Amino acid sequence: MRAASTLRTATSDHGPNPSRPQAVAGKVREKAATPRPAWSVPRTTGVATASGSVWLPTAIRLGAIALFSVLMQERSSVGELAYQLRRELDRYSPGGKLPSSRALVERFRVSPVTVSRALAQLTAEGLVVTRPGAGAFRAERPAPAAATGDTSWQEVTLSADSATELVPRSVDASGVLVSLAAPSAGVIEFNGGYLHPSLQPERAMAAALSRAGRRPGAWGRPPMEGLPELREWFARGIGGPGGPITAAEVLITAGGQSALTTALKALAPPGAPVLVESPTYPGMLAIARAAGLRPVPVPVDADGVRPALLADAFRATGARVFVCQPLFQNPTGALLAPERRGEVLRIAREAGAFVVEDDFVRRLTHADAGPLPRPLAADDPDGVVVHVCSLTKATSPSFRVSALAARGPVLERLRAIQVVDSFFVPRPLQEAAVELVGSPAWPRHLRAVAAELKARRDTMTASLRLSLPELALPHIPSGGYHLWLRLPDGTDEAGLTTAALRAGVAITPGRPYFSAEPPAPHIRLSFAGVAGAGEITEGVRRLRAACDEVL
Q1: Considering only 68-72, 226-230, 320-324, 411-415, which range has the smallest mean pLDDT?
Q2: What CA–CA distances, in Å, run from 447 to 365, 393, 441, 442, 515?
Q3: 247, CA 20 to 30 Å: which among 3, 137, 261, 469?
Q4: Which letter, b or e, does each residue of 319-354 get, where b requires 16 or more Cβ atoms within 10 Å of its Cβ?
């Protein structure tokens, strides 16, 4: 709330006109006869505000109102009001009624919305109970916590399961948590996996969600496969208008991670090998291992996966699934070379295997990327490719809307597994996605992100070359949000990661990206999760200090 909104407007240099009602805080209007404060004097002084000039009385009144405005602005914070109310709860016995919302508005000089949100916060903490029409009450004292039981028996039970499994399931989320966990205050985030809030289309998403909530049936049950118009939009993005992929071959899923989980469950039984790029996304390795699958690495170079080694891996393992990221691969940033695209599909087809195409950053290209190659699924008439794509990376971590595309009998298996696991993606989120991608704000957002990612990439590469020339940067991608650097032989990745964190910058070690022993030490640096070029430059400076300590 702006301080100026609480001041009466004036019609002349001599104070308010008593014959006209005056505007006060919010939408309330005082009667014409409202008395003026006893300390008010006719003399006034002009002061500029955000809404224009407001005429105030003498310096004494100006100082008093300025002080009042400061206090009001401080108290208008939901957190500050919740803090004050929390401190005063001891005045009330359990079940005792708190002052009314109107009384709190008047006492703390805040808006009704602020009071409502502060009470909601205390309700969520279990300190307050609200009753419609009755008011807010202090919550009853919680029951004593139950005595802690003995859960040590679970160690035996959980490990005993692995005795009958060909490949023991292991759930290691550390590689995923590196890019999900928020760093401590003051730490520069070079390990993030999502756009910084300043790059997210927050206003466009909020407007889309608001419009979606007003759509007829927005809160009803959606089709199990997803909204038809959203499936159609994804199908056009995969194969182009009138392309080989139809809306009937698309399933809407809750984020790329969920889509990959569904795909691996559908395509490979527990204990089976699954071919993966090396290095590759740690979250996919975690999915495979949690499902009892055995990841088998296939090396990647600057042109993507190596077809000859892929064919060798299929023959040696009998695998029926290969997971790859042909476009700006994570972490190397490699783009699958045109001459290798057909080879990958041919090799998989001859092996009777599926290719899971994780097309995760198609909407995060850089301004200098040029025309992009089509997804592998667009050139696949035989149903070899199961395609995964998502809106999450280009929007927000919480905008978890993605798609699975496949043709042939495998589509029904994918659909069945998704329905069993999660039923469907909430309809309001799907409706919001339809509103967002159909709005003029969507292409503007993608263009702005493309320009900003290029600028950040250039800033980071220039800073690394200047300050850390001993870190090899073999490939500079024109899409995605990270760089993959090779460290000098013998470098302790874990030690460097720890030293960097002490220096105030969070980086990602390379070891979690390999399903087997890594050929060399690496780190991955992201430039999407920072505030801007200044943070990138400072982060590289801090990394220089960490390298001086470790290398």
Answers
A1: 68-72
A2: 9, 15, 10, 9, 36
A3: 261
A4: bbbbbbbbbbbbbbbbbbbeebbebbbebbeebebb
Residue 68 pLDDT level (bands cut at 50, 70, 90)? very low
| pLDDT tens-digit series, residues 528-538 | 999 999 999 99
| Separation between Cα atoms, residue 543 and residue 316, nearest integer Å | 42
Structure confidence at residue 482 (pLDDT): 96
Taking CB atoms within 8 Å and a gap of at least 24, the contacts of 15-20 are: 15/40, 15/42, 15/44, 15/55, 15/57
Q: Could you tell me the CA-to-CA distances from 241 to 140, 370, 378 in Å, in that order?
A: 61, 20, 11
| pLDDT tens profile 225-266 | 999 999 999 999 998 776 788 999 999 999 899 999 999 999
- CA dist list (Å): 365 to 152, 282, 455, 530: 50, 22, 12, 17
Question: Each residue of 183-195: pLDDT tens digit?
Answer: 677 899 999 889 9
Q: Are the CB atoms for 179 and 392 separated by under 8 Å?
A: no
**Spatial contact of 384 and 349, defined as CB atoms under 8 Å apart:** yes
Output the average pLDDT for the chain: 84
Residues 6+ apart with CB under 8 A from 157: none
Cis ω for the linkage preceding 279 (within 30 of 0): yes
Side-chain-side CA neighbours of 166 within 13 Å: the count stands at 9
3 state DSSP class of 53: strand
Give backbone dihedrals phi and psi of 149, rounded to 5 degrees, phi first: -85, -175
Cα dihedral 410, 414, 419, 421, rounded to 10, equals 140
d(CA 324, CA 344): 10
Do 53 and 46 form a contact (C-beta atoms < 8 A)? yes
Burial 190-214 (b: 16+ CB within 10 A, else e): bbbbbbbeebbbeebbebbbebbee
Angle in degrees, 0-180, between the axes of helices 78-88 and 112-124, rounded to the nearest 10? 60
CA distance 16 to 518: 77
502 three-class SS: helix
Instruction: Extract the tokens encoding 182.
Output: 């928020």
Q: Which two tokens stand for residue 306?
A: 């190596």
88: Cβ–Cβ under 8 A, 6 or more apart, which residues? none
Please state, as a whole number, how many other Cβ atoms lie within 10 Å of the Cβ of residue 536.
Answer: 25
CA angle 405, 410, 411 (to 5 degrees): 45
DSSP one-letter code for 378:
G
What pLDDT sits at residue 340? 97
Between strands 354-358 and 385-390, the pairing is parallel
Q: In the structure, what pLDDT confidence band is assigned to residue 216 with cuts at 50, 70 and 90?
A: confident
Place of tokens 């909204």: 227
Question: Under a CB-based contact definition with an 8 Å cutoff, are residues 281 and 513 in contact?
Answer: yes
Confidence bin at 27 (pLDDT 50/70/90): very low
When pLDDT is cut at 50, 70 and 90, the band that residue 6 belongs to is very low
CA dist., res. 32 & res. 95, Å (int): 42
The alpha-helical segments, DSSP class H, found in 6-142 are: 59-75, 78-88, 101-108, 112-124
Backbone angles phi, psi at 189, to 5 degrees: -95, 90
